[in-house]
Specification:
Layout: H1 2-35, H2 44-64, H3 69-97, H4 106-115, H5 126-137, E1 149-152, E2 156-168, E3 171-180, E4 185-190, E5 200-201, H6 205-214, H7 226-237, H8 242-252, H9 263-284, H10 288-307
Helix pairs in contact: 5-7, 6-8, 7-9, 8-9, 9-10
Length: 308
């Protein structure tokens, strides 16, 4: 009986050992499946290393997983919103530091305008200045008739010999036919534009006397380059204004004790003297030579006045 009981106890112990071993195997197989290891009876250290590798793999797969569109948009908005806030803060700070300009009153603006340096206007060209002066002296309401003498700016004394009608395009135009005997030339000027072109009637005897008295005055020579003065003299001669022509004669005249004229000065002086003399001859009803002699009489008076 004692032997039977001992054998039964030993068989029960062996069966319990086999059951415990089976349970251990099952748990080891479960751990191996979760960690990915192959050996079911690995030691504890190898199990711990395998568990660490599994955790690192899972973190890598999570990091390498592609982002969805919602996640991308979320990151973009977050990144764009951050610098904007910074710039908004900076702009608020800068605007707070900059002082607000005060509005200027009318008196202050006027004072500022007065303090600014003023630029002088450009000088007017001699020809334009002379033309404006001659136009201001000219009578714009004067009328012209056939067989009368007139003064044309660029040619001097002329005689209106005829009144013609010509068709230019679809229009019929009336023209004055002017004969310049000293230049052997005829000129046709539209009747409607005769006064605008500078054409005028002969001066009166009182105007001739005033122009001759002007020759007795002192010459007014500007201290500028000769080329500029020559342009002004030529513009005066061709202006058709009697006073302007007399001024050229007065300014370019040289007495015997004065330095001689240059060639260009002599030419301009003779041109102005002839233009002036022809009008004097036409008004006084005398020849050109006698008119020039009368001009020189007044120029000699000027010489005597300067000598005193």
């Amino acid at each position: 009986m004692s032997k039977a009981t001992s054998s039964s106890q030993s068989s029960d112990a062996a069966s319990s050992d086999t059951a415990a071993a089976k349970s251990r195997r099952k748990t080891a197989s479960r751990v191996n499946k979760s960690t990915g290891t192959t050996s079911s009876r690995a030691p504890a250290a190898s199990r711990k290393a395998a568990a660490k590798k599994a955790t690192t793999k899972t973190t890598k797969t999570k990091a390498a997983a592609p982002k969805t569109t919602a996640q991308k948009t979320a990151t973009k908005t977050a990144s764009s919103s951050k610098p904007k806030r910074a710039t908004e803060k900076k702009s608020v700070k800068s605007s707070a530091n900059v002082p607000v300009p005060k509005s200027k009153t009318d008196a202050q603006t006027a004072k500022d305008d007065d303090d600014k340096p003023k630029i002088a206007p450009a000088p007017m060209r001699p020809a334009l200045r002379v033309a404006k002066r001659a136009e201001a002296r000219r009578d714009k309401n004067q009328k012209f008739k056939v067989n009368t003498q007139i003064i044309y700016p660029a040619h001097g004394v002329g005689n209106i010999v005829d009144l013609e009608k010509q068709t230019i395009g679809d229009f019929e135009v009336e023209l004055f036919v002017i004969d310049f005997e000293h230049e052997k030339m005829k000129l046709r000027v539209p009747v409607a534009k005769a006064a605008a072109s500078g054409m005028r009637n002969l001066s009166t005897t009182e105007q001739i006397d005033d122009a001759l008295e002007l020759l007795e005055g002192r010459a007014r020579v500007k201290r500028t380059m000769w080329s500029r003065r020559a342009q002004e003299y030529e513009a005066k001669i061709n202006s058709g204004d009697l006073v302007s022509v007399a001024e050229v004669v007065r300014d370019l005249f040289r007495a015997d004790d004065q330095p001689e004229q240059s060639y260009s000065e002599r030419q301009l002086f003779e041109q102005a003297r002839e233009r002036f003399g022809r009008e004097v001859a036409a008004v006084r009803k005398k020849s050109l030579e006698k008119a020039i002699d009368e001009i020189h009489i007044h120029l000699d008076r000027k010489e005597k006045v300067e000598a005193k």
